[in-house]
Amino acid sequence: DECLQQVAQAIKRAVKRPADLVARYGGEEFAVILPNTNGEGAIQVAEEIRSSLRTLAIAHPLSPVSEYVTVSVGISCTVPCHKGSPEELIAAADQALYQAKGSGRDRCVFVGLAHNIKLCGCIHRGDINQAIALAKRDVTQHGDIIVKPARPFAPG
Q1: Alpha-carbon distance 88 to 17, whole Å?
Q2: Who contacts 116 (Cβ-Cβ below 8 Å, separation ≥6)?
Q3: Where are the domains of the chain?
Q4: Closest listed residue to residue 77, CA positions, set 46, 105, 53, 54
Q5: What is the pLDDT of residue 156?
């Protein structure tokens, strides 16, 4: 589908390092893995993805949310000393993603696993500085981040 290809290209433009990975993660979802990235870096990449999609202005006339395709992003991260599994990291990204969707879509939500898998904070349109401060507090420079953009389409 042309829309999915445009969304994938927007994600690839935001994910620039050779070790970073972008993969389709089911129907209309993508996973982005950013090794050796802290929470602040993951939030910046997620916001770049959102900005890139807004710039593309892909029409979505049947959406009850927006006339253009938007993206909701769930972000989870961990630090190397955390004994959690990759499955826990993905589950946390899913939790963050559903919080983003439930909060009105077209936003990013960050969940950190650094300390007992606790919620570190949410970013909404005006709250990025608070989220970055929370990310810096709970994530070291050597954490691994999963940024999981939601389906780019609103349910019809």
Answers
A1: 25
A2: none
A3: 2-149
A4: 46
A5: 34
Q: What angle do CA 101, 23, 156 make, to 5 degrees?
A: 35
- Which are the catalytic amino acids? 28
Residues 8/29, Cβ–Cβ less than 8 Å = no
Query: Which listed CATH number (3.10.50.30, 3.30.450.20, 3.30.70.270, 3.20.20.150) goes with 2-149?
Result: 3.30.70.270
Q: Are strands 30-34 and 73-78 parallel, antiparallel or unpaired?
A: unpaired
Least confident of 3-7, 19-23, 28-32, 133-137: 133-137
Q: What is the pTM of this model?
A: 0.69
**75 is written with which tokens?**
């972000």
Cα distance between residue 86 and residue 100, in whole Å: 21
Mean pLDDT across the chain: 74
Instruction: In whole angstroms, give the CA distance from residue 81 to residue 53.
Output: 35
Mean pLDDT of 102-131: 56
